[in-house]
Design a protein that fits this description.
The chain has two domains: about 5-60; about 70-205, no CATH class. Helices cover about 55% and strands about 0% of the residues. The protein is built from ten helices and no strands.
């Protein structure tokens, strides 16, 4: 199947890559990102789409409605969102840790979940993992326009509160807290497919198991 100008049609995973990079590097000019993508796709051994085509896809991805809750967190947002003062030390501790990461990723949505859970979960590592999982579920339901459902996460939280799961176990095996509402690879693939239809991708950071 041929695309424009006699080029092969864009392979689905190449299109996914373009959309993912468009959202991940949303402040990079379209042409500069298209040039970077061309090099990346060539390194993969694939024929890249024209820069014009990639710029068009970048625009489509970036024009999709995005919740303000998925903006990067900064203290300036305290004036706009209700973060209890007693939750701020834990927020700042996790914020500092994320800023030291190679690709910092810390959203308003996640901070709100830290604030909601901070009195229930004392251990900072466990708090970060639970808040991350709830924020991810929250984001997925927003994108897919699904009713909020966190029953399996809730049961895991109850087990933690009852001492059936310890902070040491969570630190050693973070996957104890299920980040995705799936119970197998087939369901995860279906979830990823549904997100792609909305011009979103889970991305490496969200699916990586540590």
């Amino acid at each position: 199947m041929k695309g424009k100008r006699g080029r092969p049609a864009i392979k689905p995973y190449i299109k996914d890559l373009i959309y993912a990079k468009a959202l991940q590097d949303k402040n990079m000019p379209r042409l500069a990102l298209a040039v970077e993508l061309r090099k990346l796709i060539e390194e993969m051994g694939e024929l890249p789409p024209t820069e014009e085509t990639m710029m068009s896809h970048i625009s489509k991805a970036r024009n999709h409605p995005v919740s303000p809750l998925d903006s990067p967190w900064s203290i300036g947002y305290l004036g706009q969102y209700d973060i209890p003062p007693e939750a701020l030390p834990k927020v700042m501790s996790i914020y500092e840790k994320r800023l030291r990461a190679i690709k910092p990723h810390f959203t308003i949505r996640e901070v709100l979940w830290i604030a909601r859970l901070h009195k229930t979960i004392d251990d900072p590592i466990s708090l970060e993992r639970f808040a991350y999982a709830y924020a991810l579920r929250d984001w997925i339901d927003f994108v897919l326009d699904n009713p909020v459902y966190t029953r399996d996460l809730d049961i895991t939280l109850m087990r933690y509160m009852n001492g059936q799961i310890t902070a040491a176990e969570i630190a050693k095996h973070p996957s104890i807290i299920p980040p995705l509402p799936t119970w197998g690879r087939e369901e995860e693939e279906e979830l990823e497919k549904n997100l792609r239809q909305k011009r979103y991708t889970l991305g490496i950071e969200l699916t990586k198991r540590r």
